[in-house]
Design a protein that fits this description.
Radius of gyration: 14 Å
Structural class: mainly beta
Number of domains: 1
Largest sheet: 5 strands, antiparallel
Shape: globular
Order of helices and strands: EEEEEEEEEEH
Low-confidence stretches: none
Bound molecules: zinc ion
Number of strands: 10
Helix content: under 10%
Mean pLDDT: 87
Number of helices: 1
Amino acid sequence: MSNQVSLFVKCPHCDKSFMDAENPINGEPSIRINIVTASERGVLRLCSLYGCYEHESDIVLNDKEIVTIYCPHCNKSLMREEKCELCEAPMVGMNIKVGGRVNICSRNGCRNHYVAFNDIAGALNKFYHQYGFSG
Ligand SMILES: [Zn+2]
Ligand SMILES: [Zn+2]
C-alpha cells in the first residue's frame, strides 16, 4: 500500500469530518483535532498522508508528553482503552471515511500509528477507486 494515501477521517462519536481543507499540510487537507496537555489546550493539525508524521499545533508540546485528544465538534474524547505497543501510552482512535480506523499514539514524539480495517480488501478497493491508483 502506498504511503502517499491521504486519509479522510471523522469522529467515531458524532461522525463529523476532521478534515480541514483551509489549512493543508503537504498539499492535502489537514486533520484538525482539539488537544489538551497538562497545562494548556489548543488545536492540533496532523498531516493526512498515511505514514507522514508532520503536525502543527498552536500550543507547545513537550517531547514525550502524553496528550488528550478531543473531537472539535462534539468534544468527546478520542482516547481508546488500547495501549501503544511501543510506549504504553493510550492510543487515539479516529474513523476513516471509507471504513476502518486509524490509531495514533497519544505520546508526542512516538511514531506508532497504524490503520485497522474491518474489511481490508474492500477498504483498499475504495482507496484505489477514489485516488485512481493503477497499482
Ligand atoms: Zn465528534
Ligand atoms: Zn507510543
